Structure formats: structure tokens, C-alpha cells
Amino acid sequence: MIQRVLFRFHNICQRTDNIWYFCVTIKCLECDYLFICNGGCPKNRIIDTGDKFKLNYLCNGYKLFFAYIDPFMNKLGSSLFSVGNTNVIY
Question: What's the mean pLDDT in 9-25?
């Protein structure tokens, strides 16, 4: 099921090439961090992946960074949105 959804999403760009933000590789569509980087800047997509679109050359660095900060961001988010937290400065 997920492969079919990803394939349909991936083909959006093939039908409308002017929507550049949908033009990411299948590897990007399967990535846990797509919601953060959105495939990166289009000018940095230079690594050929064998399909129509190219991969951002900073992808591995982004993944390392986002994996490193994930537990800290989760802790920060839970402390900011905990019920009854009076130590939060808005």
C-alpha cells in the first residue's frame, strides 16, 4: 500500500514539472526527515539516483544532524507543551 501511495505522489512532478517541491526522489519520499528538509534546496540536488530526480548532496549530513537533535527536540517539545508548566516564557 505505501509503495503505491509513494509512487502516485512521486508521479505528481512527472505530470506537472513546474511544481519543483514535489520533485524529490523515492529515497526522499521514504525518509523520516522529509517533513523537515523537503528534499533540500533544488540547487543542491546533484547526486544522480537513477530516476528522474536528483538527491541533495547534503542529505547524509542532514540525516545525521536531525537524528542527533531528535531526542533533544522531543524533550523540549514535551516540556513546552506539558500541562501545568509554569516555567515557560512565551
Answer: 55
Tens digits of per-residue pLDDT, 40-70? 888 898 998 887 888 999 999 999 999 999 9
Residue 56 is inside which H or E element, if any? Answer: strand 54-56
Output DSSP code: residue 28.
H
Contact 54, 25 (CB under 8 A): yes
Which CA distances in Å does 81 have to 63, 85, 90?
26, 8, 12
Q: Which long-range contacts (CB under 8 A, 24 or more apart) does 31-36 make?
A: 31/63, 33/62, 33/63, 33/66, 36/62, 36/66
pTM, two decimal places: 0.64
